[in-house]
Amino acid sequence: MTSSTRHLSVVCPCHNEESNVTSLVSAVGESLAGLDVVWELILVNDGSTDATWQRIEEATSSEQRVRGINLSRNFGKEAAMLAGLRAAEGDAVVVMDADLQHPPSLLPEMLHTMHDLGVDQVVARRTRSGDPWLRTQLSKLYYRTVRSLIDVPLEDGVGDFRLISRRALTALLQLTETNRFSKGLFAWIGFPRAVVDYTNVIRGQGKSSWGLYGLVNYGIDGVIAFNARLLRLGVHLGITTVLISFLYLLWLFGRWLLYGVEAAGYLTTIGTIVLFGGIQLVVLGLMGEYVGRIHTEVKRRPAYIIADDTQHRKILSDEQAAALPSPRSVTSEAQPSATHGPAD
């Protein structure tokens, strides 16, 4: 916690987390109770189909430091996170999941680390202890592959769970692209950072909204969002294929000089057609991914639409209360004077 950090904002995107909202609010409050910091908890409902928004409204009624933002539909975790970050008013901001797999008990250590080291980002890194061996190896392979393809450093076990300063948040909010990959954006803005390790925590309750298909697509988004290297890879692949084909033609020509005309090989022909067709489809698909993202960006649609905000309700309620006349003036205006009363 930097010397200027007196107000902390905790941002939690929520999707179908009705069974975790109450526990989350309690856990955050208990973790920050002994710290000299004013805090707010911003819960962003990302189009949940269960009673998540009702639980958030109940939490805002019982705890004034909780603010609820309800998006008009499911825009995705990245959009919900952006909505919460834009609403945050703290000198420092924590981003964490609402399913309690990001332990709120780690918040004091993260704040003290920021204060002691004077960094702008304190990253919570999940250790792989307790994970199955195969999952650990696949995760390492994924990050090793991604690091070779993108232009920003990504680290295994490091996600969105982190504490960032107001300076880092201001820089992050200047990045206005629609297709967001926050892991890469946090790395791209730079600034000094520190790492705090924590052990993997089992999900509180409910079921995760992230399946294998969603995780694969999220990984593809991350690779495409931070470089055009895949397009260049397509160029290199095309050049390599042309060279191999040229060498193959030279080999065929040599066989023709030595042995004369031979019947064309069926497997060779089909294999060549399939190879070239596959390469063309892959390159066209990559081009389509980039063109599709360009199409999305140039439309400049908002990343999300807010349907309800409990903070605005409170502001409106306070303004309405201030506009009401005082009880004394209401009483005096309600009583007619003797000189203007009805005649006998």
Features:
single chain; 344 residues; alpha/beta; 12 helices; elongated
Q: Report the total helices.
A: 12
Q: Into how many domains do the coordinates divide?
A: 2
- The chain-level structural class is alpha/beta
Through-space gap between termini:
76 Å
Number of strands: 8
Order of helices and strands: EHEHEHEHEHEHHEHHHEHH
CATH H-level homologous superfamily name of the largest domain: Spore Coat Polysaccharide Biosynthesis Protein SpsA, Chain A
Largest sheet: 8 strands, mixed
Identify the overall geometry: elongated
User: How are strands sequenced across the largest beta sheet?
Assistant: 7-5-6-4-1-2-3-8
Query: Radius of gyration, rounded?
Result: 29 Å
Q: β content, as a range?
A: 5-15%
What features would you describe in this structure?
With 344 residues, the chain is α/β, with parallel strands linked by helices. It folds into 2 domains: 7-211, Spore Coat Polysaccharide Biosynthesis Protein SpsA, Chain A, CATH 3.90.550; 229-299. Helix content is 52%, strand content 15%. It contains 12 helices and 8 strands. It has helices spanning 21-32, 52-62, 77-87, 107-117, 133-149, 166-173, 182-188, 212-225, 229-259, 266-299, 310-323, 327-334; strands at residues 7-14, 38-45, 66-71, 92-95, 121-126, 158-165, 193-198, 306-309. An 8-stranded mixed beta sheet has the order 7-5-6-4-1-2-3-8, with helices on both faces. Strand 2, helix 2 (52-62) and strand 3 form a beta-alpha-beta unit. Helix 9 runs antiparallel to helix 10. It starts with 6 loop residues before the first strand and ends in a 10-residue tail after the last helix. 27% of the residues are buried. The model is unreliable at 327-344 (pLDDT under 50).
